[in-house]
Amino acid sequence: MTSTHRCTDFRVSLAETLPVGVGMFPLGITFGLLVVQSGLAWWWTPIFSGLIYAGSLEFLLVGLVVVVTPLPSLALTTLLVNSRHLFYGLSFPLHRVRGRLAKAYAMFALIDEAYALTAARAADSLSSKRILWTQAFLQSYWVGGGLAGAVVGGWLPSPIRGLDFALIALFTVLALETCRKGQDLPGPVLAVGCAVVARLVVPDATLVVAMALYVLGLLARYRFTDRAGADGAVDA
Fold it and tell me: Mean of the pLDDT values across residues 31-48?
């Protein structure tokens, strides 16, 4: 009976993650290409993907590592980019995972896609094996794509120009689509404003300062809208 459940968890997790893997694998190829064509050895790709395992942060770190960014800046950038994962833990069904090592891996592999596939379902319907298989499959797509990209990048006779802009283009499209659906104009305007201010004031640390300003801006905006909503409710 236990063996049957294990096979079911394996098959269900594979079926659920394959559509996500269709998107993760090609993006992983892009990351592998970027690593090799940035002048780093191919083996940096599995190190980034296996130990850091945070897609957007990995793209950022390639550029930061190449220019030998100081460790404090790297640490602050990592905190700002991945701080959203702290909130994932509030509803991620970690209590369903059995074993200390299994829990440690589940926390490490809690990426956006894993959260989306687990948090949307009732915790009682998820077994420990199903959660772990889901996360393992997702990481295999990413690491596999990165290795494939690194190998292909090593064979190419000349570098691909503009490859480092791939992630920026991706997030630009996602941001535009989000704005179109949610009609949230202040958010992008705030982000652009923070970037411009950081570039003008602290050109040597534009990324870190812009992200810090944006976080503070979002907190201030939330505080203002929350207070405005409360005042409106009282007046009503």
Answer: 88
